Amino acid sequence: MPPWTPTRELRKRNFLPRRMGYMIKTLEQEAYEKALQDKSYPEFKPGDVVEVKLALPENQRRTIPVRGIVIAIRNRGIRTSFTILNNIPGGGNIERTFPLFCPTIQELRVVQKQRIKARRAKLYYLCDRKPSEFKV
């Protein structure tokens, strides 16, 4: 009998998927800790007005500022993302979702803390409101 467990035995006992899940979880945790050391962002919550400076992938020197009210934050370790809502005159409401640890985000700045009183974690109901009620 070999000193290791044969692969067919691992599949039979459903051990292989659990082992792989643990390895992926460990790798994601390491990547998350490294990303936290590389970039530090201010704390923000749903209801805060933020300004994100994005670098265009085709031209790294040019940056685009995007401003909006945070309507959702999804905390998923290295895959954490947030959604902002803004109104463009003549274009209507625009929702944009950004991964927090994306290399194209050069700067994240909180412009205003909780302009509206947010009593819930996701503010998707603002998408149906008039722009004057949440205007940034």
From TrEMBL:
GO MF annotations, alphabetized? structural constituent of ribosome
What top-level branch of life does the organism fall under? Answer: Eukaryota
Q: Which InterPro entries does this one have?
A: Ribosomal_bL19 (IPR001857), Ribosomal_bL19_sf (IPR038657), Translation_prot_SH3-like_sf (IPR008991)
A Gene Ontology BP annotation from the UniProt entry: translation
Keywords recorded for this protein, A-Z: Ribonucleoprotein, Ribosomal protein
Q: Which GO terms describe its cellular component?
A: ribonucleoprotein complex; ribosome
Query: Ribosomal protein as a keyword?
Result: yes
**Pfam family example for this protein?**
Ribosomal_L19
Provide the family line. Answer: Belongs to the bacterial ribosomal protein bL19 family.
Q: PANTHER family, alphabetically?
A: LARGE RIBOSOMAL SUBUNIT PROTEIN BL19M, RIBOSOMAL PROTEIN L19
Supply the name of the protein: 50S ribosomal protein L19
Q: Which organism is it from?
A: Elliptochloris bilobata
